[in-house]
Design a protein that fits this description.
The chain is α/β, with parallel strands linked by helices. It contains 7 helices and 7 strands. The strands form 2 sheets. A 5-stranded parallel beta sheet has the order 2-5-1-6-7, with helices on both faces. The chain has a two-stranded antiparallel ribbon with strand order 3-4. It is globular. The protein starts with 13 loop residues before the first strand and ends in an 8-residue tail after the last helix. 31% of the residues are buried.
Length: 181
């Protein structure tokens, strides 16, 4: 089940939504931000907008993220809490930032057409589908964070999405930091 809550918590939690590209991270994060008032931070977007990268990789059609710059940029925002961070990788974020790690999973027959719709080149689709088969992001999460705060959720359909929103919203409503006065 979803993780319990630690006594030394910030007033509002931070959630990381991660998973292979095409698993629905941004869609879920947007929906959660709208229903809960959490601040949605799309790492891909801020990397582009704020130039937190080391140039562009033509072969993979993506920016080469500068992980240190991203962490510096987000430090104060994350310490304040109330954020949903959305990114396909998770091993470079400070562990202390997150109260819940959501790893979205999708079946290959769902993932492939989603990546085609995103306009991914064939070799990039293949790499991402293989990454999902081998649970690369899930393993990365398990190697980077305490197992008890990781939630693996299926993300194949609208029903899955609604179910995930409900589960995370319920977890949020039970998030009750014990304030030491």
């Amino acid at each position: 089940g979803f993780p319990g809550h630690h006594p030394r918590m910030r007033n509002r939690p931070n959630i990381l939504v991660t998973g292979t590209p095409g698993t629905g991270k941004t869609t879920l994060s947007d929906a959660l931000a709208n229903t809960t008032g959490l601040n949605h931070i799309n790492i891909g977007t801020i990397v582009k907008e704020k130039g937190l990268h080391e140039g562009y990789d033509e072969e993979w059609d993506t920016y080469i993220i500068d992980e240190d710059k991203v962490c510096d940029e987000l430090e104060d925002i994350m310490n304040a809490g109330n954020n949903i961070v959305d990114y396909h990788s998770c091993d470079f974020f400070p562990e202390r930032w997150f109260d819940l790690i959501v790893v979205l999973r999708a079946d290959n027959d769902v993932l492939y057409p989603r990546l085609e719709k995103k306009g991914y080149k064939e070799h990039k689709i293949t790499e991402n589908v293989e990454s999902e088969i081998f649970q690369v992001v899930l393993d990365e999460a398990k190697n980077s964070y305490r197992e008890d705060i990781i939630q693996e959720l299926q993300s194949n359909s609208i029903d899955d999405m609604q179910n995930n929103i409900t589960q995370i919203t319920n977890w949020l409503s039970s998030y009750n930091p014990q304030r030491t006065t």
